[in-house]
Design brief:
Blueprint (H helix, E strand, L loop, with lengths): L2 E10 L2 E11 L4 E5 L6 H9 L6 E6 L2 E2 L10 E4 L11 H11 L4 H14 L15 H14 L4 E5 L7 H18 L2 E6 L2 H7 L2 E6 L2 E6 L1 H6 L4 H6 L4 E3 L2 E3 L4 E4 L8 E11 L2 E7 L4 E7 H7 L6 E6 L9 H10 L1
Parallel strand pairs: 3-8, 3-9, 6-7, 7-8
Antiparallel strand pairs: 1-2, 1-4, 4-5, 9-10, 11-12, 13-17, 14-15, 14-17, 15-16
Helix pairs in contact: 2-3, 2-4, 3-4
Length: 330
């Protein structure tokens, strides 16, 4: 394993940031630390980097006990949300900075920087100042600077959080492609569920200082360990006493089966190619997501009475007991 976090705990005064956290991160993998703000994910990342010291527990990087090592001895690259660029230095000099302080030969520095700027598609901006770049370009520059010293581990703390939605989407696609090229062990912090599901090989869900579940995006989405994970990773609605995904429900207008829930359509919202229908039953509002063609084939409108049922073999039929078994397995 590239990174082993064993029984790590951290308090800030009376606030418990991390409570006996243990995580194994395989070498070469892109892992997301996902959770709500204040859940402990950035604290864990900073402990891996050596920027925070754990109150107890152990951190190993590539088999080396790094628990008490300073950041410069851990061979990690760290990218902050707000880039931390040297404003008076060119893009080339920013990327070269870590190599220069390590006193590498000038020819080696020039070659490495040119290689990295080409990798992040910034070679034509080498002589510009950071202020002359867009937000997405500055973030790519920060990633190139972190990679320049050939770190064992690359750590990203909400790297796209300061960018608008379109640029964030472009950059996370780019990060996934970059990781597939360089294969450096990468850990990134995010509170964006879509970002984690789209980019990561594995997701560690952290809440209130504890690990809720670890698994692949498919595992966590289809087999959440508990209601928190289910609610946090993707949309949910309630049908009777069950939490289900809105796209795992069906609407029909025929005779009701015993397992069906009867209700009346009270709202219809189109979101791109999807139709979101709200069904008001005797005691709750159920949200169902359909494709536009599925919805049009029903020939219903606001006020129509319909039946709602889980779609066949829907993953969201996992019971609370099943979810607790999954949690114990992790």
């Amino acid at each position: 394993m590239s990174i082993e976090i064993k029984n790590v705990a951290k308090r800030f005064g009376g606030f418990v940031a991390l409570d006996d956290v243990s995580v194994s991160i395989p070498s070469g993998q892109l892992t997301a630390l996902l959770g709500p703000s204040g859940g402990g994910k950035s604290t864990l990342l900073r402990i891996i980097a050596g920027l925070e010291r754990a109150d107890s527990g152990r951190v190993e990087i590539e088999g080396l006990d790094a628990t008490n090592l300073p950041p410069q001895k851990r061979n990690v690259g760290f990218v902050f949300q707000h880039y931390a660029a040297f404003k008076h230095l060119s893009v080339h000099r920013n990327v070269a900075f870590g190599l220069e302080i390590r006193k590498r030969p000038k020819a080696e520095i020039r070659s490495r920087v040119e290689e990295l700027l080409a990798l992040v598609h910034l070679e034509q901006f080498a002589d510009r100042l950071p202020s002359q770049l867009s937000g997405g370009q500055r973030q790519r520059m920060a990633l190139a600077r972190a990679l320049a010293v050939q770190p064992t581990v690359l750590l990203l703390d909400e790297p796209f959080g300061a960018l608008d939605a379109k640029v964030r989407k472009e950059l996370r696609d780019w990060l996934r492609r970059l990781h597939d090229e360089v294969h450096v062990t990468t850990v990134f912090v995010t509170h964006d569920q879509e970002e984690a599901l789209e980019v990561a090989d594995e997701i560690v869900v952290i809440n209130e200082g504890r690990v809720e579940q670890i698994g692949s995006p498919d595992d966590l989405y289809d087999q959440p360990a508990n209601d928190f994970v289910m609610r946090f990773l993707g949309p949910v609605t309630q049908l009777g006493d069950r939490l289900v995904r809105p796209h795992d429900l069906q609407i029909h207008t025929g005779a009701a089966d015993p397992a069906d829930v009867t209700g009346r359509i009270t709202r219809i919202t189109r979101i791109g190619f999807e139709i979101r229908a709200e069904i008001t039953t005797s005691d709750q509002i159920v949200t169902v997501t359909l494709t536009r063609n599925e919805f049009l084939s029903l020939n219903v409108e606001v006020g129509s009475t319909v039946q709602v049922r889980p779609a066949p073999q829907s993953h969201s039929d996992t019971t609370a007991g099943d979810r607790s078994e999954i949690l114990r397995a992790t």
